[in-house]
């Protein structure tokens, strides 16, 4: 029985100081009873050094305090093995209460102890894993009471201490509209079914989170479900990204389906993989039935030339070439001329193998029409600039030419190259330089596109003569396409010469008028005086006739004066001006 139970019994006689071991004790200590005489010293030395003081103190407490003998300690066998034993004994005393004998047994519990230690270590490892697990691990009773939760879970529900959550119901933490999802996995677990669900929670401090939880049943030794274990992770960021991707996808679908451009992709067999509605409409028209994914994009109904041209395009793209083609044709749908820019780009997988082709067709008809208009307008503008009477120059703020129109040769005699090599102050009359300098300064203060009123300057012609030019300055410095001061000017020399001649003539006419004015006044005064005298009626007939004679003489004199003035004026005004006047 001792061998089967790994037991041994022992006795110690306090009076004779003798000790007795059964065969079971020797077997546990791996000793041979014949070779090993029993002694107190042998018994004491058989106890593990670290446990000897504990065993000695326990014996003293049993004797002095009367406590039951119940000791667990380690023994060291003869072969050096360490055994854990559990010993119980009974103290026998005389009538006076003095101990005379102690009788006990001990059992080798090494296997049980090692199993317990392994279990404790395993429990410690599991506890460490649970405590360090970044996801929420919780145990909930069948009626929804939180039994246990790791630190990560407490953090997710914003509990400052375990006591804030343990022993309380879980459901108040669930978003009311999502409560049915949580209840479903809890009820499934109580039925022995593992299940998962997504739901939102509201933390104890008001933070909203998306959670994904998997619940499984926990059973006792009888197989009865006693609680629910669940692993829950915070998927708030994941849900936000999913919602963002959904929005992006919907926006992309709205964009590609809301454009008249054609967008499609094909596989290596020339079959449609995906396309926007605009392309589906075109393909449906060509196929003469509603197009769908998987249909071939090589259409023979539009003619062999169309078929083979597009087959060549697709084969080039599927061979790895990215390229752009420009198509000009009459649309079979609108029957109007269309210009399209078509791009082909290979699609590769992670192994860089070509799996398909992405295609994009952009309608550039309007752009082509505008381009033609711009080219035509540019030609018209160039003809006007080159053949117009005005010269156009682009100047720096210091008056250096950056561009000059070809009409500079016709107006000022310089070639374009000669004109650009000169500064504006090199050709402007010295007396007009201050005025030009001020205008260049004033135009810089104007906003973009602002112009100064026209002003006349004297400029030196290539032949050395001075010409009058009328100039208008416009500030276009901040315009990227111009980047300077635009000077529009034309030759007004003839006009200025005529105006100067008119001024001179007017001055001469004023001099003639002033010189002849006193000659006119004398006969005119006589006429006026005689007329007043006759009107009085006081004159005789003879006096009246004589006065009328004087009037006639004065009128003839006045006529001679006027004729003299006209003659002198004609001498001042040249015939050509006279004819114009």
Automatic annotation (TrEMBL):
<feature type="domain" description="PAC">
    <location>
        <begin position="195"/>
        <end position="247"/>
    </location>
</feature>
<feature type="domain" description="PAC">
    <location>
        <begin position="69"/>
        <end position="121"/>
    </location>
</feature>
<feature type="domain" description="PAS">
    <location>
        <begin position="377"/>
        <end position="447"/>
    </location>
</feature>
<keyword id="KW-0597">Phosphoprotein</keyword>
<dbReference type="InterPro" id="IPR036097">
    <property type="entry name" value="HisK_dim/P_sf"/>
</dbReference>
<dbReference type="Pfam" id="PF08447">
    <property type="entry name" value="PAS_3"/>
</dbReference>
<dbReference type="InterPro" id="IPR001610">
    <property type="entry name" value="PAC"/>
</dbReference>
<dbReference type="Pfam" id="PF08448">
    <property type="entry name" value="PAS_4"/>
</dbReference>
<protein>
    <recommendedName>
        <fullName>histidine kinase</fullName>
        <ecNumber>2.7.13.3</ecNumber>
    </recommendedName>
</protein>
<dbReference type="InterPro" id="IPR013655">
    <property type="entry name" value="PAS_fold_3"/>
</dbReference>
<dbReference type="InterPro" id="IPR013656">
    <property type="entry name" value="PAS_4"/>
</dbReference>
<dbReference type="InterPro" id="IPR035965">
    <property type="entry name" value="PAS-like_dom_sf"/>
</dbReference>
<keyword id="KW-0418">Kinase</keyword>
<dbReference type="InterPro" id="IPR000700">
    <property type="entry name" value="PAS-assoc_C"/>
</dbReference>
<dbReference type="InterPro" id="IPR000014">
    <property type="entry name" value="PAS"/>
</dbReference>
<keyword id="KW-0808">Transferase</keyword>
<dbReference type="InterPro" id="IPR003661">
    <property type="entry name" value="HisK_dim/P_dom"/>
</dbReference>
<dbReference type="InterPro" id="IPR052162">
    <property type="entry name" value="Sensor_kinase/Photoreceptor"/>
</dbReference>
């Amino acid at each position: 029985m001792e061998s089967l139970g790994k037991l041994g019994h022992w006795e110690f006689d306090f009076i004779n100081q003798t000790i007795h071991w059964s065969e079971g004790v020797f077997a546990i200590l791996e000793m041979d009873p014949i070779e090993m005489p029993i002694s107190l010293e042998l018994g004491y030395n058989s106890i593990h050094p670290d446990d000897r003081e504990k065993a000695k103190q326990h014996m003293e407490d049993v004797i002095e305090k009367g406590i039951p003998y119940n000791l667990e300690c380690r023994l060291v066998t003869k072969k050096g093995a360490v055994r854990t034993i559990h010993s119980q004994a009974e103290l026998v005393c005389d009538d006076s209460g003095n101990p005379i004998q102690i009788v006990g047994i001990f059992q080798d519990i090494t296997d049980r102890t090692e199993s317990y230690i392994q279990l404790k270590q395993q429990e410690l490892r599991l506890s460490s894993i649970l405590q360090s697990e970044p996801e929420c691990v919780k145990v909930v009773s069948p009626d929804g009471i939180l039994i246990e939760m790791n630190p990560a879970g407490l953090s997710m529900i914003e509990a400052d201490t375990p006591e804030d959550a343990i022993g309380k119901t879980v459901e108040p933490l669930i978003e009311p509209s999502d409560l049915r999802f949580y209840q479903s996995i809890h009820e499934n677990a109580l039925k022995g079914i593992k299940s998962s669900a997504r739901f939102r929670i509201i933390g104890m401090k008001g933070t909203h989170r998306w959670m994904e939880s998997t619940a499984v049943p926990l059973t006792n030794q009888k197989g009865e479900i006693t609680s629910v274990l669940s692993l829950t992770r915070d998927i708030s960021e994941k849900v936000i990204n999913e919602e963002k991707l959904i929005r992006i996808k919907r926006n992309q679908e709205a964009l590609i389906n809301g454009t008249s451009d054609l967008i499609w992709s094909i596989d290596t067999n020339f079959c449609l993989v995906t396309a926007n509605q605009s392309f589906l409409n075109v393909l449906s028209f060509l196929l003469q039935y509603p197009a769908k994914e998987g249909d071939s994009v090589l259409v023979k109904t539009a003619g062999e030339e169309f078929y083979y041209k597009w087959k060549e395009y697709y084969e080039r793209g599927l061979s790895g070439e990215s390229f752009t083609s420009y198509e000009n044709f009459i649309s079979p749908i609108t029957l109007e001329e269309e210009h399209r820019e078509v791009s082909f780009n290979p699609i590769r997988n992670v192994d860089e193998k070509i799996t398909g082709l992405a295609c994009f067709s952009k309608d550039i008809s309007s752009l082509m029409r505008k381009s033609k208009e711009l080219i035509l307008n540019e030609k018209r503008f160039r003809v006007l600039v080159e053949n117009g009477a005005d010269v156009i120059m682009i100047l720096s703020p210091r008056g250096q030419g950056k561009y000059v129109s070809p009409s500079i040769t016709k107006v000022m005699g310089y070639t374009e190259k000669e004109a650009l090599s000169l500064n504006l102050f090199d050709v402007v009359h010295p007396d007009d330089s201050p005025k030009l300098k001020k205008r260049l300064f004033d135009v810089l203060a104007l906003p973009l596109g602002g112009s100064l009123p026209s002003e006349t300057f004297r400029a030196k012609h290539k032949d050395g003569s001075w010409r009058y030019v009328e100039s208008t300055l416009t500030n276009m410095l901040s315009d990227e396409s111009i980047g300077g001061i635009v000077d529009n000017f034309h030759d007004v020399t003839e006009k200025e010469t005529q105006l100067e001649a008119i001024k001179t003539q007017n001055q001469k006419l004023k001099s003639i008028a002033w010189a002849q004015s006193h000659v006119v006044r004398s006969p005119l005064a006589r006429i006026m005086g005689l007329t007043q005298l006759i009107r009085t009626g006081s004159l005789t007939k003879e006096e009246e006739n004589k006065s009328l004679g004087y009037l006639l003489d004065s009128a003839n004199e006045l006529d001679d004066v006027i004729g003299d003035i006209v003659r002198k004026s004609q001498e001042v005004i040249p015939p050509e001006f006279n004819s114009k006047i």
